[in-house]
Description:
The structure is a homodimer. Chain A has nine helices and 17 strands. By secondary structure, chain A is an alpha/beta fold. Chain A has two domains: about 10-20 and about 255-355, D-serine dehydratase-like domain (Lyase, Ornithine Decarboxylase, Chain A, domain 1), CATH 2.40.37.20; about 20-245, Alpha-Beta Barrel (TIM Barrel), CATH 3.20.20.10. In chain A, strands 1, 10, 11, 12, 13, 14, 15, 16 and 17 form a nine-stranded mixed beta sheet that branches. In chain A, strands 2-9-8-7-6-5-4-3 form an eight-stranded parallel beta sheet. The longest helix of chain A is centred in the middle third of the chain and has 24 residues, at about 185-210. Chain A starts with 16 loop residues before the first strand and ends in an 8-residue tail after the last strand. At the A-B interface, helix 4 and strand 10 of A face helix 4 and strand 10 of B. One pyridoxal-5'-phosphate binds near residues 48 and 222 of chain B.
Amino acid sequence: MLEWTRGQAVGEIDTPALILDIAAAERNIRAMADRLIHGSVRLRPHVKTHKCPLLAHKQMAAGAIGVTAAKLGEAEVMIRAGIPEVLVSTPIVGRTKIDRLLALSRHAIVLTVVDDVGAARAISDAATRVGQKIPVLVDVDVGQRRTGVLPGEPALALARQVATMPGLVLVGLQGYEGHLQHVQSRDEREAHWRASMEKLTDTADLIRGAGFPLDIVSTGGTGTSTFALEAPGITEIQPGSYVVMDDHYGTVQGVGFEQALFVLTTVVSRTRTTDVIVDAGMKALSSDSGPPRVRGIEGAQYVFAGDEHGRIEFADQGSNLRVGDRVLLVPSHCDTTINLHDHYHVIEDDRLVEVWPISARGRIR
Amino acid sequence: MLEWTRGQAVGEIDTPALILDIAAAERNIRAMADRLIHGSVRLRPHVKTHKCPLLAHKQMAAGAIGVTAAKLGEAEVMIRAGIPEVLVSTPIVGRTKIDRLLALSRHAIVLTVVDDVGAARAISDAATRVGQKIPVLVDVDVGQRRTGVLPGEPALALARQVATMPGLVLVGLQGYEGHLQHVQSRDEREAHWRASMEKLTDTADLIRGAGFPLDIVSTGGTGTSTFALEAPGITEIQPGSYVVMDDHYGTVQGVGFEQALFVLTTVVSRTRTTDVIVDAGMKALSSDSGPPRVRGIEGAQYVFAGDEHGRIEFADQGSNLRVGDRVLLVPSHCDTTINLHDHYHVIEDDRLVEVWPISARGRIR
Lengths: 365, 365
Ligand SMILES: Cc1ncc(COP(=O)(O)O)c(C=O)c1O
Ligand SMILES: Cc1ncc(COP(=O)(O)O)c(C=O)c1O
């Protein structure tokens, strides 16, 4: 249904439209790979951000060892598009999902995480019945208070149990420090990160010491990827946002990637001197991390004005924006904004060169 | 890709899942129609909430005169599904959209709104070229500070211009009082509403007095539908949320519809005594109006824990929720939550009876 023409100028694209500056995204993909090239930490980028197999393949081509997915549904999309190895970073619970995991595991390497003995046993039992073995990481809570067992003894206790389950293979630990990614100050972020990582690597040592080999210690997002080269004991990181970035990450010191994602919007109403109304609201831009930033208009502020509209308020009433004009917005949160759109409008040199489906959008199961 | 079985118990549906209690929705559809049955105000319900042609047809069967849509994309979905008349309640700007409007207008009655002379002229010019006439309402700002010209003289001035445009037919006014829908106190809401409606109906009188007949004066949402029967000068209302409701509307006095929409989620982690982690986060529940409400667990609070997770915190640590258990959540905002999902899981007597595509989800253009 989407109408577009290759070579259209950005200003001619129908709006609201999600815009991907592919050259910037490719530079980001390269920059993250370069960051790791001299160390032993490998890259398993999280596709929950971009949700697009083509971008995942570009990450693989740049040296990723596989990808990370938040949900089985995302993993299915990636594997059907030829990605050979996916870590599902959230616990898989319930019979329907376990059956999907087993079906998928016949066609690619699918790793997952466990933090509960009963949930682990359910996977093991189902896998055993069909003669499969699922590689799992024990999920460790390194301070985020989300999923994961506590570091140290509780993690060891779960690892011991997992090691006895015939349908599972204990391959490592996951400890995602999501609470640290957006700590603004580089030094503060690094100090917290070192403390968190010590919990994780100490736990890995404890488990290894008890006789269970662990190949993988997986952690890390875009905000802490800065430190990944100096991370003894960490074997891989799983950053997601770096490919496209967002305005929230733009405020975090020392992250160092380029903004590649925008929402293009049109002025649809101007009845006051102080503001205009644009056609992108809460159905085109996520609001969980605040409003988007207006690009290229000094002092202009975007305010959400319902599901379909935003109000752009001017610092200086002299703005000459008129009905029909286009405005580029920088999303505050990339993952949730991308999740509202069906397509990337891929641009190069300010021209539309491709439209890509966001195939894993809405794969919430 | 969605796996489901007719007759499944709610507790067996894979999660997260958007649940529609169809009996409650049908009672809401009936209740709104009953509310209007003895007056002269007609019903043109807004489909931006449910985004589902089948629900729109149920509204038509209950006596609606047509539907309202926020975007042309929604109107296209409705018209292709046989809805004969759609009001697009936001200004249509830009050549691509005008071409779509003209194409659509050959197959159904499509009304739209204008608040800008240039934008109106662009539609008129394009319509004239193909020998069409588009019915339009002048959009009036009754206090929301979104789209719309000011009431009184500015509205009259625009109406005069529109009346001279050969490709347009001036048929009425729209004045949506979105800023009043959630005023908690019934009395306060009513007082503000009377003042707003006076502006709108006075403007209609002014324009009619200047020699321009106006058939339609369209306004109203779920929150102000309480007063619609006693609304001289208003010809129709366009409420949306009432079909399914949400927790935000649940706090508004005197609205009087039933909650018919839920998000079903599964406990995927329980490593602390104080809370559990469920599998519905910001990709399954909108956060613009705050967190969802936990149904049926006294004192339990939902806290967003990222895109894929929520944390349910207990007042009383004795909760016996375990990994694998299901929890029903009441979304805080129906429109934006529905917009995250591809399907309604339609339930009756706690059994899954149908799965309906949310066909206009993501139709943001
Ligand atoms: C488990 C896990 N790993 C990695 C990431 C990627 O983090 P970022 O997008 O900040 O790079 C996320 C993001 O939420 C995550 O949940
Ligand atoms: C123009 C317009 N009319 C009607 C409605 C319906 O309002 P509600 O969902 O509160 O009933 C909306 C909702 O945003 C709207 O924008």
